[in-house]
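Treating backbone geometry as a discrete language has practical consequences that deserve illustration. Part of our work consisted of pairing the sequence of a single chain with a tokenised description of its backbone. What the numbers capture is local backbone geometry rather than side-chain detail. For completeness, the protein is quoted in full, as a sequence line and a line of structure tokens:
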Amino acid sequence: MADQHIEAPDNLDFESYINNYKGMSNLKEARHTRINRALFIAQCCTSLEIEAYKFALNEIKDTTKDVKRYKACLESLNVALQKRNQEPIEPDNEWMTSTRKANKATLDQLESELKSYKNSLVKESIRVTQTSLGDFYFACGDMTNALKSYIRTRDYCATSQHVLEMCFNMIKANLEESNFSHVQTYIARAESTPNLPDKPATMARLKCCQALAVLEGNDPKKFQTVANALTQITFDGQTGEVLSANDVAIYGGLCALASFDRRQLQELMTNNHAFKSYLELEPQIREMISAFCQSKYAASLELLESFRNDLMLDMYLYSHVDTLIHQIREKAMVQYCVPYSSVDMHRMAAAFNMSVEHLENDLVSLISEDNGRITARIDSNQKILCTKRRELRHQVFKQSLAAGDNYEKSAKALMLRLNLLKADMVVR
């Protein structure tokens, strides 16, 4: 993605965007989220490059112990400054030296405490110290050792809260490493934990993590799974460490638009009060879905296209933007054709704000797909789409007769068996 340069949307203010994650600053994971998102924007958006790198650099110094990441970020920032003929920033050698010393002292202390607790077999103290060791490695950017420390707490978990803490620690570290299959494993483990504390907030965090894991997986119905997960979250601001409330509206709304049918979308807009509250944070997504439900496809798709660059600056969503837009456009075309036996392609092209030639190519693709999204023929000369109605009534009669035949065969076989038993004709 670093080689792909995205124009910053006119309405995007970097500080406002990154502050969407400020409410989660009490979570160590959220600090990493802010840094990760800032670095992603810096790598793919030239106009925001300097601002994003400077923010990430300060955030690394203020909230982590990761000297290696600080040096890498500073190097990238100075390259960007030099390209603009600006003075490079000198490294904070004092911070790096003191952080290295503090890291060594902290590690020695934690390892000494852990050894002492293991010798005395104090299980709870072992669990707490292993967790602290994992948090230390996480803050240092050493995810391999963080994962090892977190997984070692498993044998010392005595309550549901302990199990949940272990699961969330494994989830956050695996997300950093992009081990999404492991993320799913620990989400399932957390969901199966009895007596979940603060269940609404806990489930909200798990649903957000699940959405990211599914999004990066190979499930052909992943958009529907993501939409189902995010539209079930209660509106209480506890969306977790990886997604903000705005992200829930964007991810959930777009995935719903790509995968839900019209009835489900209307249900979402009228009866799902929690998700409606999320949509209030992103009115363009709300308007997009509303226009789609009202069959105003051109307006909906135009809003979607105008939102493309915003989506491309999202570190988890950018690789799915083209697929999402393509699926939403295709679904709109299919729904447009449903009520008609024939469609004037000139009028349809006007409804979708596109050329007839472009529309014809898209329709050919939909007709020629393996599952035949549209069952129709195109009169290319007259520019008319003639849909072929499936004779559902005949199909139902055929299925009913087949079911009757099967029932008759089963009944005859059962009667024959009963008569044989009655006549005592049994193989002994």
User: Anything to note?
Assistant: The first strand starts at residue 342 and ends at 344. The mean pLDDT is 88. The chain has 21 helices and three strands.
